[in-house]
Design brief:
single chain, alpha/beta, TIM Barrel, 11 helices, 8 strands
Length: 278
């Protein structure tokens, strides 16, 4: 039987006073043992999360948010030395699978730093308009977004190029669910969460049609795993809303009659193995 541990694989550090303390208290009440917590943007965000990691070393698995303009492969080494567990990628300047990024991913694989990729349509920001930036300073504060650069099919390429790297795609690729599902089936090192609007707007039966294979079907995972063994629990909401996401996952388990073994792999067992958590 899979060890009964709950790990939130996708959570953002909120700009709220004492957020790590609030998060730790709430998650203790929910029975969530660990959280993969993503740093706020910039070096100040990296430092802020590092401070929280030092305060809660058994609770927080820190994910450094990648800065495509300023970070280099050697920064992966720096993050590892600082005690970060993985790296978060979002809003790339080119498609995720572009050759310019391979050296970054290679370093992550070498150092066993899992990568969490935002996938699908990214939310709008209140930041400065990229098209109206008239100075270099304005351009730095604005940013160009092409959601097409964040399609799940790009993770298929990356997973094949770096087969030892543990890769986590967010939101099951919303709205490109079929790309995500098939990429998931073919790549043993590729996993997805169901964060965002998916569990609110898509019926369990729809997800079951996407994740249809098991160890007995003619067409299946190369390692003989059930489709649901490639799905992990994540919240991607504020700490006080996580209970609602957890309820959505539990509703999914009940509606699809998933086994206890699969349930606990989704809730934490698979993520524990991805990050080497004992």
């Amino acid at each position: 039987m899979e060890k009964k541990i709950i790990i939130d694989a996708h959570h953002h550090y909120q700009n709220v006073p004492d957020y790590p303390d609030l998060l730790a208290e709430e998650y203790a009440s929910l029975g969530i043992s660990k959280v993969c917590l993503i740093s706020p943007k910039g070096e100040d965000g990296i430092k802020k999360l590092k401070k929280a990691m030092d305060k809660y070393p058994k609770f927080i698995l820190g994910l450094a948010q990648w800065d495509w303009e300023n970070h280099k492969p050697d920064d992966v080494v720096r993050f590892k030395d600082m005690g970060f567990a993985g790296v978060k990628f979002i809003r790339p300047t080119l498609p995720y699978n572009h050759k310019d990024f391979w050296s970054i991913y290679e370093k992550c694989q070498e150092l066993k730093m899992p990568g969490l990729f935002h996938l699908g349509i990214v939310g709008r920001s209140k930041g400065k308009d990229f098209m109206k930036a008239t100075t270099p300073e304005d351009a730095k504060e604005a940013y160009f977004v092409d959601s097409n650069y964040m399609r799940p099919i790009y993770l298929d390429t990356i997973a094949r190029l770096f087969p030892e790297w543990q890769i986590h795609g967010a939101h099951l690729g919303n709205p490109w669910y079929e790309e995500a599902s098939m990429s998931c089936r073919w790549n043993p090192n590729l996993y997805f969460d169901l964060t965002g609007s998916t569990l609110k707007k898509k019926k369990p039966e729809y997800l079951a049609e996407l994740l249809w294979w098991n160890r007995f079907t003619r067409y299946r995972d190369p390692d003989g795993r059930d489709a649901w063994e490639k799905i992990v629990f994540g919240s991607d909401v504020a700490y006080y809303e996580t209970h609602d996401v957890l309820n959505d996952y539990n509703n999914l388990f009940q509606k699809l009659n998933l086994s206890e073994e699969i349930k606990w792999k989704i809730l934490g067992g698979t993520v524990a193995k991805m990050y080497g958590v004992e």
